[in-house]
Amino acid sequence: MENIYGKNGLQKVINASGRMTKLGVSTISKGVGETLVDAASNYILIDSLYEFAGKKIGEMVGCEDACVTSSASAGIALATASLICGNNLSMVHHLFDELPRIAKREVILLKGHNVDFGAPIAAMVQLGGGKVVEAGYANGSKLSDIEHAVNSNTLAILFVKSHHCVQKDMVDVQDVVKLANSLQVPCIIDAAAEEDLSRYMAMGADFVCYSGAKAIEGPTSGFVACRTTELAANMRLQYKGIGRAMKIGKEGTMGLLQAMKEYLNGEHQSLVTKEHLNPFIERINAIPGCSAVLVQDEAGREIYRAKITFNKDVYGYSAKEMITKLQEGEFAVYTRDYQANIGSLAIDPRPLNSLEELEYIYKRISEIGKEHQ
Fold first, then answer.
1. Residues 139 and 185 in one domain
2. Rounded Cα distance, 117 and 256, in Å
3. Which one of 115, 132, 184, 210 has the minimum C-beta count within 10 Å?
4. 301 and 337 share a domain?
């Protein structure tokens, strides 16, 4: 399991956490790799490439147009800025000079959605010139919370579809989109890691922000599906303003298109699947102090993981201690550790590159447990 990072003296990583930015998100296919090299080896008028890519993506996901971005988070910032500036190039050039004179820049965000996904989502809104206005509570929300927050200064409603967000007693995304449409307020959906590339646009959202490197398994990239070409064009205009600092290059754009083509054609197949987790779970359960079960993704997606609970009195280490222990050795094993404080870690099979990596994880858990036996 040698790779370029190990050859350069860096600790090698086994990613059993998920398609996480801090771990390089995902790996690309041979076809995407070849596309990156081909695109990087030639010249193109970037503005025309952006327009071409937007139309191609629109055809793929069922919207009028799209704006390619460097990431889903960049998409939030650019969508926000585009709603403030419209097609006014002077405002694009002087956005932050103009902001003190602009009242209509409030972006309504459910309190339970005001999360840190590796960076504060509020910072993405603020980067685009918006001002976050929270609605509802951290442990629940109603449509009336959003409706009450809407006023003449409301720029947009932002809905975050993510496992990072509070799931309990939150309003449904479709209901939020309907409300936004009825109030004639633009609706932005952060769907960075979502697997359905058409669902939210079909609901009536104005902007839907996706990562190109998560479910799609493309290069570092993203796109925003836009309800109209006007909205997409106004977003692309931001590349002459704040978007310049978060631009996507020709190779990333073409690599994204190839990855989307493969993804929508069903060519992406995980090397380690839910079925492979079942015998893995049985073996983990045979380790004293370990208890493993198959669980579904907390946000309701069709993603299944092995949840391992550690009994420190028997095994020797708590789940929180195991985070560090598993990152020691030849390979740093990164697990899904959101519930480590209540005793468990999860193994996500999707990012694993081989069954050999799953076997390595089992061996490490087994070896670490024997240290205290």
1. yes
2. 22
3. 184
4. yes
Q: Are 83 and 224 in contact (CB under 8 A)?
A: no
Inside any domain, residue 293: yes
The strand order across the sheet containing 154-160 reads 65-69, 222-226, 207-211, 187-190, 154-160, 106-110, 131-135
Indicate whether 95 belongs to any domain: yes
13 in Cβ contact with 7 (< 8 Å): no
Positive or negative, the CA dihedral 278, 282, 287, 293 is positive
Q: How many Cα atoms occupy the beta-carbon half-sphere of 328 within 13 Å?
A: 9
Domain of residue 121: give its range: 30-264
The tens digit of pLDDT for each residue in 177-236 reads 999 999 999 999 999 989 999 999 999 999 999 999 999 999 999 999 999 999 999 999
Q: Round to whole Å and give the CA distance between 240 and 93.
A: 7
Is 24 a domain residue? no
Query: Bridge partners of 333?
Result: 14
∠ CA(65), CA(211), CA(219), 5° rounding?
A: 100
Amino acid at 200: Y
User: Comparing C-alpha atoms, which of 364, 32, 44, 65 is closest to residue 234?
Assistant: 65
Q: Report pLDDT digits (tens) over 219-263.
A: 999 999 999 999 999 999 999 999 999 999 999 999 999 999 999
Please compute, for residue 250, the number of CA atoms within 13 A of its CA located in the half-sphere on the CB side. 13
Domain final residue, candidates 247, 264, 281: 264
Does residue 223 sit within a domain? yes
Q: For the stretch 144-174, what's the b/e string if a residue is b when 16 or more beta carbons lie within 10 angstroms of its beta carbon?
A: ebbbebbeeebbbbbbbbbbbbbeeebbebe
Q: How far apart are CA 146 and CA 312, in angstroms?
A: 44
Would strands 290-296 and 331-335 be described as parallel, antiparallel, or unpaired? unpaired
User: Helix (H, G, I), strand (E, B), or coil: what is residue 338?
Assistant: coil
Note whether 159 and 151 are within 8 A (CB): no
Among 231, 264, 297, the domain boundary falls at: 264
> What is the phi/psi pair of residue 210, to 5°?
-120, 150
What's the number of domains the chain is made of? 2
